[in-house]
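Hi R.,

Here's the chain you asked about this morning:
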Amino acid sequence: MTNSKPSLHTALSPALLHLYDLNHAIVVIIDVLRATSTIATALYNGAKCVIPVDSVAKCIELGRQIDGITAGERDGRIAEGLEHGNSPFEYPREFVAGKTLVLTTTNGTKLLHMALDRGAGQIVTGSFPNLGAICRYLTSQNLPVVLGCAAWKDKINIEDLLFAGAVINQVKDHFHINCDSSKVAETMYLDARVDLFEFMKNKQASHYLRLNGFGLEKDIRYCLTPDLANVLPFYENGKLIVL
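And the predicted structure, written out as tokens:
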């Protein structure tokens, strides 16, 4: 007897993405600190669209062609040659409304392009600021889901795992989940959900230490707070738009 519910899997790292069938699946790109949090925030604040690119050179070239905002980071810092970084606080409504953001990041935009290359059925981007929108969409579609963690240079990180766990905790009744990485993600989220920031701090999470070392505690706290920018960024024709 087959299970009538669609499947849900969690890829803990881009290095593991090739293990999953993406062809008919909704792939959720997760880069909590900070790409997907910033994408949700910019779109929530009225950006026309976000164009994710996989190199700084391409970001600069495309930004010139379309007169867009060129933005992104490498190793947590504003990448050389770009105007803006990867902080959600750089994109308030009065700055970004009606504009196109061309974005490149160390992990998140790379994973998105990997999912494209592997034939993903649909691509959306998820973060705590748009947790509710992601969960509502996944449960409405009745399609297989792959939660793709951008991680850090292919090494598993805690914050993306926590977000995957938060999604699973909310949508699991709608899916068939025979996936140990999904079980691990939910277990960790249940341990952490009372205070995600303190959990990251107490566990000395690598990305917490990296960004906190740059004085970015405010960014970390924002990116771990649910439903502050509750839109659904949907990838279509090379752009992320609000669906």
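The mean pLDDT is 94.

Let me know if you need anything else.
M.
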